[in-house]
Amino acid sequence: MTGRAWVLALICAPLLAACGSDRQAAEGASLFKKIAVTAKSGLAARRGKGGTALPADTEVMAASALKTVKGSILIAQFERGSYTTVLGQIGENGGIRTYATPDQKAILVKSGVVVGTRGFGDDLMSARADDAIRLIRSRSVGTAKRIYRYLDGEGIERPLPMTCSIAPAGGQALAFGGQSFATTRVAETCVNGPLSVDNSYWVTGDGGIVMSQQWIGQAMGSAGFQLIRP
Amino acid sequence: MAGTATRLLAGATVLGLLCGNAGAQSGAEPGSDIPRGTFGLPGLVDMPTAETAPEGFISGSIFRFKGAGRTTLSFQVTERLSGAFRYSKVPGLNAGGTDLWDRSFDLHYRLLDEGPIRPAFAIGLRDFVGTGVYSSEYLVATKSLTPRLKFTAGLGWGRMASRGDIGSPFGDRPPLDFGEGGKANTDQWFRGPAAPFFGVSWKPNDRLTLKAEYSSDDYSREVGAGKLEVNSPMNFGVDYRVKDMFTLSAYYMQGTELGLQLQFDIDPRKSPVPSGLETAPLPVRARPAPAADPEGWSGAWTSDPQVQPGVQDAVAKALAKDGQELEGMSLSATRAEVRVRNLRYLARPQAVGRTARILTRALPPSVETLVITSMVKGMPTSSVTFRRSDIEALEGDGSVEILRRARFDDPVAIAQPGMVPTSGVYPKFAWSLSPQMSVSLFDPDNPLRADLNLRLGGTYELRPGLVLAGSVTKKLVGNTDQLDQVNTSLAPHVRTDLPFYLHEGDPAINTLTMAWYARPAENLYSRVTVGYLERMFGGVSSELLWKPVDSRLALGVEVNYVRQRDYDQMLGFRDYEIATGHASAYYDFGKGFLGQVDVGRYLAGDVGATFSLDREFANGWKVGAYATFTDMPTSVFGEGSFDKGIRVTVPLALALGTPTAKTFTSTIKPLNRDGGARLSVDGRLYDTIRETHQGTMQDRWGRFWR
Q1: With an 8 Å Cβ cutoff, is B404 touching chain A?
Q2: Measured CA distances, A166 to A181, A208, A214 (Å)
Q3: pLDDT truncated to tens, each residue of chain A (230 aa)?
Q4: What share of chain A is helix, strand, coil (3-state, %, to 5)?
């Protein structure tokens, strides 16, 4: 592969967004847009408080994503803001896959376990979860140490260590995205002092996590994931 | 220069220490649990307590009662030390019985923390450099009987011993040497009669605090002026926390008057919106195995003359989409250096981290050494060098891991041949049209005046480091031109003619300059600026700065020859000329504390020194204070005796949740006098380059993988 091929690879990266020709003006315009959007979403959040946001039809989403997106596809449903989005894989490095939403937020996943987010705000910067991943995928009983890392309000990285108990919790048949799976549900409870969070993983016979409910952080809360295409 | 090791370890320790308590991120706002008195610092009503706000908190309070008012801005400088600046209206105490408008500074220091039995102890100075209307000193103890019930007792001197004194334990209090005010009344501190005070506060719930105190301040001067009636030594107060940030208080004072206070508390470490809403960074692209791309790994591609231009173009485009600009690139079989101007990220490590990831996607596999050089005003100011294998291996790890393996250098020291400027970057033109506020405070006739201006600014960079810049302003609306157009200053009118400039300068040419920034040698930075440098002066300003990339210390000299501009701020000059300049030392004390000393000759020809201390947070908040002492006699300087002020910088990114390098800085000077006045020229070198150097970069390194 020559240098030009690398150049091509860069240009094809699906994350890149358009931007104006005049940087100063573009920056200014985006600031104003940002403020407007922030104000609007604030309003929406207030209106939505206690409201009845309908769960998006994930099956419709999955079907259309399978047609239009190449590569691995994930559907994520977030507790916070109760919204659902499709994510397509845009990269893989060291066993960590990066999935991106159409509006260029990203989720970093290692063997089906979320180890990072970007662009959601107050993101999970990174996580060490290898021991937990091993137990979950082998559907075994055990405890594992995890470290979650976040930025505090000053922008300084703070680790959050957790001790996690993992145990299988029965078999379950699933069907979504035009496929059906025989899975074992694996339950995980992670604790640090008064903080206790629950995760669930639906694991297939070969150790693949096809569906999960995972805690991401105190700000983002939990999210559900379905692996539409591995 | 490899200054990595020692400072890196420090960073690692900090992260290690914080492991335990990161879980307690949410919860009630602790700052609002510190009840503040009517002087804006922790207190009951008029009397202080031994409490302090959480470190770093910035608070403001506006208190009104019976024709009097106090507006206080306070800052929790360290865990123990609080400082406050106050502007007060004291009825009837001016010569001739008019209202006195007074500025005052307070310090409050928690000597001992509360123990199981021992109460907390604090010592304080109230109004210790002003004209002294509130001058008092105190020792105070506070004990929590339960978390919601606190008792306070203390001993006050000065004004806080005007009622019920118990004698003078430390000798007589000499009369106040009033002079022009503004000097520390050191010989009075803790002298003269002392009087006890005490009180209690009770918090029935999280929003409400009830307070009662026996006050040792009898307001005798106000009573003497016939402005106040005092029937009781008891004061009562109710604080109600309206929102996390705001607290409303009501008081019943001296048995006769009602008072009201609005207070706000800002935690600079807490963002009002979620931080990190920008689009996700491009992920690292791992290289294929050597067997899969033998040509790329062999470096044979270097013989293809089209590779470098192609790579450079692609990197430039990807960076442009990320708010950065590729000014130049050098590429060999194993090493690539990119020179990047960051236009978006206040935290430089975020810019560097994103650049590193873009490089992994664009460079042929044999390139292992990545050098990312920050460009500021056309100068290369710092280079961070990574092994590409480290970037690939540590993308999913804590940011301190990649920091441990990064190396900081002066770009001049490690420069290698083959740097190719990106075509089309220079000349570079940019313009902006923006609203601008100018505010005049502390005029007794009208304590707050403001103008809203429209500012049109432009910069034209002919080549790296050579910048033509200008700005004009036009007033939209405002009332600063109503400031009195009389100037009785005995010193050369280098600053006190401000009302004339405000009145006549509409529209005004604010600045029109040609500046040349350069790197004359390793660790050295230089600037020469010619033209209309600021509102009141034009001429030549030149500066040389020594600052190794990994040094806490920087040294600089600045020499200016300037002439005073005409009031209309067009092209003309008045007939005042002066050579002015300073030798400066800058020191980064760590934990965000930055000190600076400037020694030299000021605009009015007075000779002296300016001492500054700033507290900078990693997210860009900055709070500082400065004072200037010169040989100008206080009788010539006039009211205030010497120049001093406080300044606050707020990063805009905090309000948006997305990165922008834009910040707002305001300096509050209690008085605008001619002594100790420095030229206000744009682009001073230290602040221009500091954020790209190792110290600040390490403080902000958490954003590297964002």
Answers
A1: no
A2: 21, 16, 13
A3: 333 333 333 333 332 222 222 333 333 333 333 333 333 333 333 333 332 333 457 888 888 889 988 899 999 999 887 788 999 999 999 999 999 999 999 999 999 999 999 999 999 999 999 999 999 999 999 999 999 999 998 999 999 999 999 999 999 999 988 899 999 999 999 999 999 999 999 999 999 999 999 999 999 999 999 999 99
A4: 25, 45, 30
B32-266 and B449-463+465-688 have identical folds: yes
Instruction: Provide the 10 A C-beta neighbour count for residue B645.
Output: 17
B339 token code pair: 């020179």
Mind listing the pLDDT tens digit for each residue in B18-56? 222 333 333 334 444 677 899 999 999 999 999 999 999
Q: Quick check: B284 and A159 CB within 8 A?
A: no
Q: How many angstroms separate the Cα of B153 from the Cα of each of B138, B225, B249, B495?
A: 10, 30, 22, 46
Q: Which of B528, B586, B536, B584 is nearest to B560 (CA)?
A: B528
Report the C-alpha gap between B30 and B267 in whole angstroms. 10
Write out chain B residues lying below 8 Å of A194, CB-based: 23
Q: How high does pLDDT run on average in chain B?
A: 90
What is the C-alpha separation between B395 and B603, in angstroms, rounded?
52
Tokens (6 digits) for A145: 């140490």
Taken in order A117, A121, A124, A125, the sign of the CA dihedral is: positive
Domain limits, chain A: 58-229
The nearest CA of chain A is from the CA of B219 a distance in Å of 43
Q: Alpha-carbon torsion B683, B686, B691, B692, what sign?
A: positive
Residue B623 and residue B612: Cα distance in Å, rounded? Answer: 11
**What's the token pair of residue B64?**
């009104």
Q: In this predicted complex, what is the ipTM?
A: 0.87
Among B152, B205, B130, which residue's Cα sits nearest to residue B43? B152
User: Closest by alpha carbon to A141, among A163, A123, A168?
Assistant: A168
Domain boundaries, chain B: 32-266, 275-425, 449-463+465-688
Residues 285-314, chain B, touching A (beta carbon < 8 A): 285-286, 288, 293, 295-296, 301, 304, 306-308, 310-311, 313-314
* A58-229 CATH fold: YmcC-like fold (2.40.360)
* Assigned CATH for B449-463+465-688: 2.40.160
The domain made up of B32-266 has a fold known as: Porin (2.40.160)
